[in-house]
């Protein structure tokens, strides 16, 4: 399966769904584990670009993540990979996302209000 690295530089991610264990089967409730035996979790993120376009993506990560709904986050090592399968005679396909971990993004500093008022006085 081909993994495609995702360029994060133009995107802002917000956690919209708390981490939950990924299931192998809905019927049995079997939880997915990675090669190292760690439980795989799914975290729902919104990905927004500078134009205002927003996409919702579910990202699989090994181990529980310390993030909650509403936090601005960074999916570290984010890759996308296309998939397709036939279920009940119907072909399904999509793009899945995986990251090594999800961290809180560095805080964004607000503009200095005194600098803004000085700029307004100069104009």
From TrEMBL:
Protein name in the entry: Regulatory protein
Organism from which the protein derives: Actinomadura litoris
Organism ancestry: Bacteria, Bacillati, Actinomycetota, Actinomycetes, Streptosporangiales
């Amino acid at each position: 399966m081909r993994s495609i690295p995702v360029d994060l530089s133009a995107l802002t991610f917000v956690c919209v769904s708390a981490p939950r264990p990924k299931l192998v089967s809905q019927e049995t409730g079997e939880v997915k584990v990675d090669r190292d035996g760690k439980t795989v979790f799914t975290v729902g993120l919104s990905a927004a670009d500078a134009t205002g376009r927003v996409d919702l993506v579910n990202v699989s990560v090994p181990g529980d993540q310390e993030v909650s709904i509403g936090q601005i986050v960074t999916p570290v090592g984010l890759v996308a990979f296309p998939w397709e399968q036939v279920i009940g005679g119907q072909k399904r396909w999509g793009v899945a996302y995986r990251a090594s971990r999800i961290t809180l993004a560095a805080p964004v500093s607000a503009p200095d209000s005194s600098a803004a008022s000085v700029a307004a006085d100069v104009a």
